[in-house]
Amino acid sequence: MAKLNPYLSFRSEAKAALDFYRSVLGGELDVSTFGGTPMEGMPTPDEDKDLVMHGQLDTPGGLTIMASDTPSFMEYVAPSAGVTVALTGGPEDHDYIKDAYEKLSDGATPGQPFELAPWGDYYGQLTDKFGISWMFDVAAQ
């Protein structure tokens, strides 16, 4: 089965962001750095060796978030306001998603509180301390 997963781009904060997301969502984190994964014909400058070439967080509930840093020899493209990570689920996911919203709120720019919305779902928004926009939606009973 195909999966659609967010792949987040950072200047140099991918490891800190993935560690934070792991503390919020749980799961197993696998990180490869530019220095730890040398590529033939592509020397890695010393200042880039600790940057994340690829990081992947697989959560207990089956969510996957991937991320990488941008080395000095590549152009950094910041996340756009139009890209959002959506964490959604049914009534059985309410506590998990509410807890994620509360933990991701640490250092975040508030958007919309996680509360019952006029259309009947629990809904909220924020931009986390790494500049990533999040949307939360849980179907009510």
UniProtKB/TrEMBL annotation:
Pfam families to which the protein is assigned, alphabetical: Glyoxalase (PF00903)
Gene3D superfamilies the UniProt entry points to: 2,3-Dihydroxybiphenyl 1,2-Dioxygenase, domain 1
Entry-linked InterPro entries: Glyas_Bleomycin-R_OHBP_Dase (IPR029068), Glyas_Fos-R_dOase_dom (IPR004360), PhnB-like (IPR028973)
Ranges for domain Glyoxalase/fosfomycin resistance/dioxygenase: 4-136
Recorded superkingdom: Bacteria
PANTHER family: PROTEIN YJDN, PROTEIN YJDN-RELATED
Descriptive protein name: PhnB protein
